[in-house]
Amino acid sequence: MLPVYQNQSGKKFVNARELHEQMMVGKVFAAWIQDRIDKYDLIENEDFFPILEKTAGRPKTEYWLALDTAKEIAMVQNNHMGRVIRKYFIEVERRFRLQQPKTQAEAMLMYAQQMVETERRVNKLETQVTETNHRVENMSQIIALDTKDWRNEISKILNAIAYRKGGKEWYRTIKNESYSVLSNRAGANLDIRLLNKQRKMALQGVPTSTINNVSKLDVINDDKKLTEIYVAVVKEMAIKYQMDKIS
User: Fold this and answer.
1) Angle, helix 224-240 to helix 150-165, in steps of 10 degrees
2) If exposure means fewest CB atoms within 10 Å of the residue's CB, which of 9, 111, 135, 160 is most exposed?
3) Contact at 8 Å (CB) between 205 and 180?
4) For the AntA/AntB antirepressor domain, which residue ranges apply (predicted)?
5) d(Cα 209, Cα 140) in Å, to the nearest integer?
6) CB 159 within 8 A of CB 241
């Protein structure tokens, strides 16, 4: 987990670059830290301490944040990892504030208790981080969905949403929601398009059994632009319903 450093006078600091990495911010570090400094009026040598470090390549500036500042930045990041890290900082502060033992025996007992409790809390936080990473990976797979094998992938996503809502009986409701959003966004009446397609097939002499099996998905598939819009609609629904697993 994110390390918290302490100097000889007992003041605690967090490396801003390490905080940026842990929070999985979608912005390069240099731009992100400057934005935080400007937006929240952070005071140099009080809230943060810039240190120019010489490396084999170009020199780079490391920013050390006071623990209170790091906690505030985690809070205003307003994402799941930010909230997890803020709780972690609060726990770190709690441990630092623990009353100092009076005897060596008390010190040994307190140390043992702290180690057990710290391990428990760290394990819990690591589990939360792992779960968050899994959600990010799964959401990335959903966002990467293209229109090549869209029918199977769409079916998986809608089924997953239905089960999250309460079971397979929700599938029709979720599917109808996706069609409704598509119709409104594309300005297309799927019911009329389906009826027209079936009539055209009948005039072409297509068997009735085949005509009866035609669905709105077939109508969508006939129109490339409509397909692209529908894929985007279902992706948005997956995000809306906070899907963390698509099987």
Assistant:
1) 30
2) 9
3) no
4) 14-79
5) 40
6) no
Find where tokens 């979720």 sit.
Answer: 174
By DSSP bridging, strand 5-6 and strand 12-15 are antiparallel
Q: Whole-prediction pTM value? A: 0.45
Please list the residues that pair with 49 across neighbouring strands.
64
Q: Residue written as tokens 């979608």?
A: 26
Residue 93 neighbours by CB under 8 Å, 6+ apart: 12, 67, 71
Pairing of strands 60-66, 5-6: unpaired
Q: Is 190 helix (H, G, I), strand (E, B) or coil?
A: helix
Q: What's the rounded Cα separation, in Å, for the pair 149 and 247?
A: 15
Amino acid at 86: R
Q: What is the pLDDT along the chain (247 residues), one digit of tens a residue?
A: 688 888 877 788 999 999 999 888 888 999 999 999 999 999 999 999 999 887 666 788 999 999 999 999 999 988 888 899 999 988 888 877 765 556 677 667 766 776 788 788 877 877 776 766 666 566 555 656 665 678 888 888 888 888 888 888 898 999 999 999 999 999 989 999 999 999 999 999 999 999 999 999 999 999 989 988 998 888 888 878 877 656 5
